[in-house]
Amino acid sequence: MKIEKVKFQGFGRLIDKTFTFHEGINLIEAKNEVGKSTLVQGIFALLYGEKKEGLKTKRTTNWYEKYKPWGATEQYGGEITYSIGSDKYCLYRNLLIHKDIEQLTHLTRGEDWTERFPMDKKKDRLILEKQLGLSGDLFRQITFFTTYSLVPAQKKDRTETRVLEKLRSLLKKGEEVDLTTVKKKLESEIQEIGVKKDARQKPYGKLYQEINELEKRCKELEIAYQQQKKEEARIIELARECEKLYEKQTKIEKQAQRLLEEVQHQKNQLEIEKLIIQEQALKERIEQAHQLIQKRDQLKREREENQPTEWISLEEVNELRLTLREYKEKQLSLNEQLQKIEKLAAEQEKYKERNDKLIAMKVEEPERMLSKLATYEKWEYKLFHHKQENEDNERTWIEKDMKLVQQLQQKEEKIRGQLDEKWAKIQTEDRGTDKWWALIAGTGLITVILYILAPWIWLVTGVFTVFCSYWLWRKKIHKDEERKKLMELQLALQNNQVEQKKIFYTWQVENFLDLLEKHTKIKKREQTLQGKQLIEEEMEQIRQEVKNWLSDYVDKVPVFDVDKWEQMIIRLKQQREEILQRLFDYQATLSFLQKQYEKEQTEYHDLGRTIAYYQNHYQTSDLHQIEKWFEQSERVRKLDLKIDELEEQIELFAYDLPDWEEELKISQKTRAELQAQWRSLGKENLEQRLLDLEKERQQVLKQFQEKEKEKANLEGQVEVLRQKTNLLPKLQTELKALKSEWESLHYKRAAMETALTVLDESVEEVQENIMPYLLSYATRWIYNITEGKYERIFMEPQEKEWKVVVPESNEQKPIEQLSTGTIDQIYFALRLAMLELYSEMTKTFLPIILDDSFVHFDYDRLQKTLQLLLQLAKSHQIILCTCQKRERELLDKLKANYHLIALQEL
User: Fold this and answer.
1) Which domain, by its residues, includes 474?
2) Which of 552, 582, 602 is the last residue of a domain?
3) What are phi and psi of 2, to 5 degrees?
4) From the CA atom positions of the chain, what is the Rg in Å?
5) Average of pLDDT values for 891-906?
6) pLDDT at 82 over 90
7) CA separation for the pair 650, 656 (Å, rounded)
8) How far is it, in rounded angstroms, from Cα 253 to Cα 121?
9) Residue 149 — φ and ψ, nearest 5°?
10) CATH number of the domain that 36 lies in?
11) Looking at the 3D structure of the chain, how many domains does it have?
């Protein structure tokens, strides 16, 4: 497999970038943080996409958010052109997770092959997985070599084991069996079932807890069932006792009936009983009325005790709470902003002090110095070449510039005339505008008044107001256009003056008269025989002047060289512009912060005035006191409602109360008379017998009612217990089912744990079976990369420890005892051996991608490693990323063919 071209629409900082790769070694050279790792990650993303592998749901990988394009999120993706054998493909991907697109084109045949890779349940086509037989994780582990490839031992073992599993599968069956994936799935399912009994979030622990709770509930219901049986027996016993009491009561009532029949003639007794009932009813009504009055009086006293100093509503309390909280927050915000302003002002002053000389430099000084150096260079050319060409003739140049200045001055006079005309016109139009606005305001107010008082007349003033407003609006538009033209003329005048100044700076004069004088000097100098000497004197004067100027801004002025001095002046000019821009940024930020501070300060004062209003209104700023007044106000309002209800009830009784009291007195008087007549009849013994019988009947009735009440209570309790115990058979059935389900889960988990143990043994078998093949390749690579210092590598089965053999002494050394650089070389050799073995077994020669893998190698180790990579480049494409120049220098020294890609800062 070879990668031929990568085109990024957007990936991290790589926007609309294309990279071409060749066979053999492709050297990507760039500084750190320029985009090497982004390019490598982008290649992997375009090959395998943005989705995380091994999940049931669609989720993004860990790098997804990190490499979203800067400012162009919709362009996240690109296309990659690669070849597998003689077939050439182009794979396009849109990496946005919510609308991911992938399209595969077979460039050799010119066909769209996307539909040949149908989507799975997660809507993934798995194009590279099916073409190479490798998942994205395995492809990265085999082909990617980074600075951190020399990882801790646990991660090394895990990576090597997965690759060894694939190699063993290919050796035995010619197809892939990923034992690690199966192990992960088994471990995941065991974790889903649960291991501990007290883990309620897992099925195993959840069922165990449910069984315990259900057993406890069944025990409680069994106890309730026993209680139910006892109470049912007691109910039967009470029913028998009630039957006996009822018979006794019936017997007493019959005896009383006979006595009543004997005194039937005592009709007054009935009247007495009737009066007693009436008196009792009247007493109850009167008592009820007096109780209502007492309750009302008690509530009024309570209202007086809870009367607040100030009446406060809920809305006022909430508003005060919110105002106080905003006041404190605003106070803290103002303090923070003031600190920021002071800190920024101090930074600005320090920056001014550090660059005071460049800030004080006049804007025209660098141009003037550059002009002097240009003049120096021109005279130097004239002196040393002893000829005057037409384009270098100084007199011709000054005469051309004089004509140009004259034209510019004429144009300046014309522009100034237009400016005066426009300015006069704008001032004329401004006169009277305020009066028109006052007129519109007055007519507008009149229109509103007429609209309220006389609906039909307001149309006249309204139309006039609208017409005036439209006329003023048109006038404002015309005025804005005139002001725009005025600004354009001012800009043209400014540009004209700048052009004139440039010409004056070029000839080192202040005005046109000085330029004429300069022209006369040049003519005289050309005519005199001592022109050469004068030029040399002026050249020396220019050199000294520029040197003195430079010495003000640099610590050490270099030896005179026109080009160097020009570059130095240009750098000083650029530094001054950068400093002024920085000062402008400081000032803009300060201005913004000060405006924000003033705005929040205004809001802070407004909140303070609100708080002061409440303090003046309530004569306190204590929020707790105000809340206490609010609670008292609420209690008083509730008491008022209760008092109003009682007043309404008392009004209903108040009208009839005097009549009830009068009726009670009359009834008591009448009953007393009737009782006196009854006593006079001499029937005391009969009455006593009736009273005794009634007393006995009442006692029997009381016992009967108590038994009936006890029986009714027991029947209610039995009914409640019966409803509870009815669930007992169902719960026992559920308990049995839960125990069966828990045992099934227990057996299932045990089976999975057994399978996991068998798989662990299979992994060890993988290493034992594949290791001889791998070590034969690794021995050759280690021997070459260590220049024969170590030749053979093997692992002790009992100790699980890697060792190498020293050829000279045949000594066996554990890898952990070697130097860090040697361990890195040996691990790198093992990685190359696994890659070579995999490629030869699958007949697919994968590319090798190295991202700063040799940053810790010294010069000799790096040279030997590059020689080995040159051998490997005959069958594999190699993409070598580096932040140093050592690799390029060594490849040039080895006279190797390679393709250089130099990344520049974006």
Assistant:
1) 362-552
2) 552
3) -135, 140
4) 54
5) 86
6) yes
7) 10
8) 90
9) -65, -30
10) 3.40.50.300
11) 2
